[in-house]
UniProtKB/TrEMBL annotation:
Names of the cofactor(s): a divalent metal cation
Enzyme class: oxidoreductase
Family: Belongs to the PdxA family. PdxA2 subfamily.
GO MF term list: 4-hydroxythreonine-4-phosphate dehydrogenase activity; metal ion binding; NAD binding
Protein name, UniProt field: 4-hydroxythreonine-4-phosphate dehydrogenase PdxA
Species of origin: Wansuia hejianensis
EC number: 1.1.1.262
Keywords tagged on the record: Metal-binding, NAD, Oxidoreductase
Gene field: pdxA
Subunit structure: Homodimer.
Amino acid sequence: MKSKPIIGITMGDPAGCGPEITVKALHAPELYERCSPLVVGDAKMIEDSIRILEETGYLKPGEISVRRVREVHEAVFEYGTIDVYHLELVDMERFEYGKLSAMCGEAAFQCVVKVIELALAGEVDATVTNALNKEAINLAGHHYSGHTEIYAEYTGTRKYAMMLAHENLRVVHVSTHVSLREACDRVKKERVLECIRLADEACRDLGIKTPKVGVAGLNPHSGEDGMFGREEIDEIAPAIKLAREEGIVVEGPVPPDTVFSKARGGWYDIVVVMYHDQGHIPLKVVGFVYKPEESKWGAVAGVNITLGLPIIRVSVDHGTAFGHAGQGVQNELSLVNSIDDALLMAVSRLKKQQE
């Protein structure tokens, strides 16, 4: 097995926080002891982030440099040098931090397409994505609601799901970017069973030998035996029964107002949730920590993993932060967490390939 898996990291929307937090994350020498990071993007943006971080005192002058490569094998993977798979994407004369633009949307999109291509070709062992702006990529003519849909199309994947994770709290979504009305309609036995299977597999990829899966109900009190809705009786419970018959350790439907506290307490390794906010809210309550006394975020942690793909994709669990881009003040913790989880999954898959 490779001693140091290669992790492909997209720069995200260049007008946002991606380039800056990438430099900050790769400023840790211990990271290079565990993996070989390769940034996919425009080298000019990484160089400009280094300049900003030197001016703010975060970096010493000359402490970090950029090596432009056109092929993965050209990278040196040494601390102090950030290897960038260079794509000529940004016209610096037209570029502005924090500004929504088709140029930056196109740049972010092309980085994602390239890192998928590298992963499918086996040139990188996992992919990590910085935030892109959905409006910007749509301005550039690419009509996707986010990374997940781009990955699904370019890998030919039909069955997939979003997983969010922070520390021991993990959730997998039955539906994500749809209206609440449509989300309720999407709670079907086949989809719930699919997500239970994906949740179980994801935990195993993260090194949990016998995962315990909790399944949240859709309605208050999980429907109270049909008083508040029948989705638990007609769709969710039958899916859980089928999953148990397959040998998966799974419980539910658990009332959604208690399932996350139970997961934090160790009852479950992962929770299958029924819609976007049911999973996002608890993850961001524990992962996003605002310091009112300092009027700033103390931590923006958590990761987003797309399950069901033939390649590994882990992403930061925050947006582009246009309002603070280019100022040297961004928090890199979510990206660090993303690289760590991508590395865990890459090692697991590489071991399986050799068994």
